[in-house]
Amino acid sequence: MLLVTSVNSLWKLKALSKRYWRVIIKSARTWGIVALVLIATLTAWELLREEPTSQPSLNIDSNSRTIDYFMEQFISTVIDQKGLLLYQLSGAYMAHYPDNDTIDITAPHMLFYHQVATPSWDVIAERGLTNSNGDEIYLLGKVIIHQLKDSSQTSHMKILTRDVRVEPAAKYAETQQPATLLDNYGRTDGIGARIYFKEERVEILSQVRGDYAAADKP
Fold first, then answer.
1. pLDDT digit string (tens) for 152-178?
2. Whether residue 18 sits in one domain with residue 107
3. Is residue 3 part of a domain?
4. Does the N-terminal or the C-terminal CB of the chain have fewer CB atoms within 10 Å?
C-alpha cells in the first residue's frame, strides 16, 4: 500500500512537474513577447525623439532675396574723362540685390569702343554678374566675343567660350574654360584665353591646336 501510494505520489509529482514547467514555459513565452514589445516601443520612441534633429535644413531659394531695384531692356553707357565712349552694357533684365551689392543681368550684351563712335568689339552671354561699381563683370554660360571690324593685324576674330571675367575699364577679358578662336585664316582651339580689346589681341593659354587649311570664315 505504501508502495502504491508512493507510486501514485510519484505520478502526481510528475503530473504537477509537467504542469509546473508548462506554466514556466508559457510564462517565459509571455514575458518574452512582453520584452520584445517593450524593446520595440523604446526603439520607436528613440527614433521619434531623434527624427527632428536628423532632418536636413531647408535650402533657401535665391528668388526669396530682396530686390531694391530692377530694369528691363536697359542700356548703360560709360564714357571716359574726355567724354569718349568706353563701353556699353545692355540686357533683357537687371536686378540689384542689396544684401551683397550684386547685380544679376539676363542676356548681357557689351560693346567696346576705341577712339571712335562705332564699336570695335561685340560680346554677348547668357547671364552676367557685377556690382554697383562695375569694375568687374562676370559673363556666365555661353559667351561669344566678336571683332566687328578688321585691323592691320587681325581679321574679324571670333572667340567662342564660357564663363568670362571682364575688366571693362581696362578693356580686358579672360577665361579658364575651353576656347575656340576663328578668323579669316583658320581656327585655333585651346584651354583658357586672354582678350585685349584695345590692342586687338587674343592669347590662347594652353593645349593649343590649330587648323588653318580648311577653316570657314566666322
1. 566 789 999 999 999 999 999 999 999
2. no
3. no
4. N
